[in-house]
Write the structure tokens for this entry.
Amino acid sequence: MTEQGAVSEFDGTEPSADGPTDDQGAAREQADPRTRDESGRADSETPMDDASARTGAEAVVAALETAGVETVFGVQGGAIMPVYDALYDAEHISHVTMAHEQGAAHAADAYGAVTGEPGICMATSGPGATNLVTGIADADMDSEPVVALTGQVPSDLVGNDAFQETDTVGVTTPITKSNTFASSADDVGEDVSTAFALAASGRQGPTLVDLPKDVTTDETDVGPTEPSVPGTVSVPDRATEDAVEAAAAAISDAERPVILAGGGVVKGDASDELRAFARDHEIPVATTMPGIGAFPEDHDLALKMAGMHGTGYANMAVTTTDCLLAVGTRFDDRLTGGVDSFAPDATVVHVDIDPAEISKNVEADHPLIGDASTVVDQLGAAMDDSPDTDEWVTQCADWQDEYRMDYAVPAADSDDGAPDASSFPDEQPVKPQFVVEAVDAATDDDTIVTTGVGQHQMWACQYWTYTEPRTWVSSHGLGAMGYGLPSAVGARLAADDDQSVVCFDGDGSFLMTCQELVVAARENLDITVFVLNNEAIGMVKQWQDAFFDGRRMASEYPWVPEFDTLAEAFGADGFRIESYDDAPDVIEDALATDGPAVVDVYIDPTEDVYPMVPSGGDNGQFALSEDHL
Ligand SMILES: Cc1ncc(C[n+]2csc(CCOP(=O)(O)OP(=O)(O)O)c2C)c(N)n1
């Protein structure tokens, strides 16, 4: 930062750098003809209704209101202050002040994942914008609809190393679906509407509008427009009929067909169509990690997740299939392992809305470009015969028995399917898989699960039985530790009131964003966090043990805080599970808490995640323990 370039964060458009004093605030309330309801929101006419004289900032907020936005996650700061000031008058938008901008981006991402509509995050220029970057990259990797609005220094200072100047458009270009530097108050409303439409349309993803302070303070008489994608953008819908016919014939002729449901099934709201197709034609279904929830995991045809930590039976089926119907997946390397050994005998039918995904990683014999629900319907209509899958379904069921997901202390299930804590030796440390199963049994099917990244995330994939789309919310492609708690905040605000939200976190992941507990406590958000505490960054430790001769460099924590006590300091309820005996009552009490609760679960630190296919390995050669690697 040069002396010359440095400018005050508050450049004269605000009355005081410290905001209104109590007296000023009270005077403002009195002078304000509008009354405010309990939430502090304006409840009468606002400048938003008057298209003739608005600032660029008001145009931004009007665009959000026109798009139907109800919730914005963000953190205040100098360059974005005009937009926050305009939000003060917004009747239909609540702002959730997060502790950190990364939290705002993850919360917006989860909001998008649960609702299917873009989640909105907002930050100031410079560090505010750069703090959003992890969350934006996460949304980009997972095709989540997010709109990021960032403050920027005034246009005439851009390039001067001005105070809190960062080239946000430059920084975020590779990790956004589209980004825009707003150039005038007249255009900024449309910039935001377009960003909203682009985030939501086709293959969803994050968009960003960078808002220089002069643009948000200048006046405009341009009114808001409904979000729409530019005419140059075409969103594929139906696949070509010839291609569908050929793909349907390949599926009908198959002897060992498998459906691989990716995240695009969930995002494309194609679960119903996919379920119907699989049931009608008796085809087993595996999912990718983002595809979890696309198909009910308690169904006979469900193979659960395939890939690095997928089930043995899903990986056997995907390796042996002669026809893979892959819907809405980008075939990431943790799914495929080595591509040469991935589904080696299969004719591949690949349905995707993004033509760029076709044959990017896995060669498609039948590319079907279009919207997942439309194309699966088209395929259903084109199927003259169902494949004869009786033997194949039996084979998959046999693999399911052979490679049953289990952990070292076998559970004696009680009548209601819940693992029975009394059958576990109380003197032994609690297995994390038991906790996941016990929480699953204690909650409804539509419970939303969020996670951090690491072993706990994989146990949450493997041992929870997902039956509904949009109930599994995680950081898949980027693998961002710290995603769990802020995404639970976003999911909570997006979910139905009677839906539970549970977060499984690791101690390492929780330590990265636990400050967002302040938001959960302040807003009294009903979230239950289970910290599967192994006093280590366990997944790294597992890899060190497996591939680095057990040299545990920087992976074990010599000390971690008591997470239950820490939760209480933030205003949440704290609980602890130290033994199997504790588990049932503590889980019940924590879930019954009206507001945020954190359960510090002392898990067996020796537990590792299996099955495992080493990076680049052959899915058919999964290891069931370290000895098999
Ligand atoms: C932001 C970030 N930093 C580092 C990593 C690398 N990493 C992957 S898993 C993992 C361990 C996570 O530890 P924890 O959250 O305690 O979960 P556990 O594996 O113990 O369940 C690490 C460090 C990452 N994924 N994300």
